[in-house]
């Protein structure tokens, strides 16, 4: 299970998001990061039992930095108040669909798919759905998928995307800006041995969507 040191550090960081406190607690950060990294290593092993595309990854390939880029932001807090990892072929910057684990007190979630895909990837996904809408609907309307992800994540266009006919029967499936999902997880579950099973069940339900997306991405 996820070690308590991860949550404890993030809770205190949220109240002390400044460089002085962080440097004074650098060893605690390194311990929490190491514990989260180990948890992700085990999660990769778990996921590759049903999705072999993540084989060969290490946690270091998947973890996001805790340091915020504040150059163009009005929010000058220097650190993120979460640990996150995107487990996908080629790691955290991959254009492939994958599995995301987000640990943040009161805001933990599991998710995945293709978030903020590049324009050519987004167009290719929409084109595939346009030609095979029933296959895509079969994935996102599957009862097991719906149990974890009742809807796709994020904003939608208000009209048909450029290059696609407005009268297309399933135009709503093409209007998404992301082909991603997210599922909030309560803190008590994250901090218990139930979390491993939650990851397993949730990501197994997500796998058919990632498989659909990655068959498109690999041909680009």
Q: H/E series, N to C?
A: HHHHEEEHHHEHH
Kindly estimate the percentage of residues that lie in beta strands according to DSSP. 5-15%
Q: Regions with pLDDT < 50 over 5+ consecutive residues?
A: none
Number of helices: 9
Indicate the overall shape: globular
Q: What structural class is derived from the secondary structure elements?
A: alpha+beta
Termini Cα gap? 38 Å
Instruction: Let me know the average pLDDT.
Output: 96
Total count of domains: 1
Number of strands: 4
Alpha-carbon Rg, integer: 19 Å
Strand order of the largest sheet: 1-2-3-4
Pfam family, one: DUF2461
InterPro entries: CHP02453, UCP028451
Descriptive overview:
The chain has 220 residues and is α+β, with helices and mostly antiparallel strands. It has one domain. It is 45% helix and 10% strand. The protein has helices spanning 4-15, 19-24, 26-47, 59-62, 119-131, 133-140, 143-148, 187-190, 194-217; strands at residues 83-87, 98-103, 109-114, 179-184. It has a 4-stranded antiparallel β-sheet with strand order 1-2-3-4. The radius of gyration is 19 Å and the shape is globular.
Indicate the topology:
Blueprint: H1 4-15, H2 19-24, H3 26-47, H4 59-62, E1 83-87, E2 98-103, E3 109-114, H5 119-131, H6 133-140, H7 143-148, E4 179-184, H8 187-190, H9 194-217
Antiparallel strand pairs: 1-2, 2-3, 3-4
Helix pairs in contact: 1-3, 5-6
């Amino acid at each position: 299970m996820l070690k308590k040191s991860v949550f404890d550090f993030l809770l205190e960081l949220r109240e002390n998001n400044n460089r002085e406190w962080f440097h004074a607690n650098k060893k605690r950060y390194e311990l929490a990061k190491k514990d989260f990294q180990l948890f992700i290593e085990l999660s990769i092993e778990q996921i590759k039992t049903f999705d072999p595309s993540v084989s060969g990854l290490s946690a270091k390939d998947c973890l996001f930095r805790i340091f915020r880029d504040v150059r163009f932001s009005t929010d000058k807090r220097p650190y993120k108040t979460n640990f996150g990892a995107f487990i996908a072929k080629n790691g955290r910057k991959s254009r492939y669909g994958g599995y995301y684990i987000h640990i943040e007190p009161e805001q933990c979630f599991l998710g995945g798919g293709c978030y903020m895909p590049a324009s050519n990837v987004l167009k290719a996904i929409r084109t595939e759905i346009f030609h095979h809408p029933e296959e895509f609907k079969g994935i996102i309307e599957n009862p097991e998928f719906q149990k974890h992800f009742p809807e796709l994540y994020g904003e939608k266009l208000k009209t048909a995307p450029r290059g696609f006919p407005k009268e297309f029967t399933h135009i709503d499936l093409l209007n998404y800006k992301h082909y991603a999902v997210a599922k909030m997880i309560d803190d008590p579950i994250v901090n218990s041995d139930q979390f491993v099973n939650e990851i397993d069940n949730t990501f197994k339900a997500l796998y058919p969507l990632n498989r659909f997306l990655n068959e498109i991405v690999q041909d680009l």
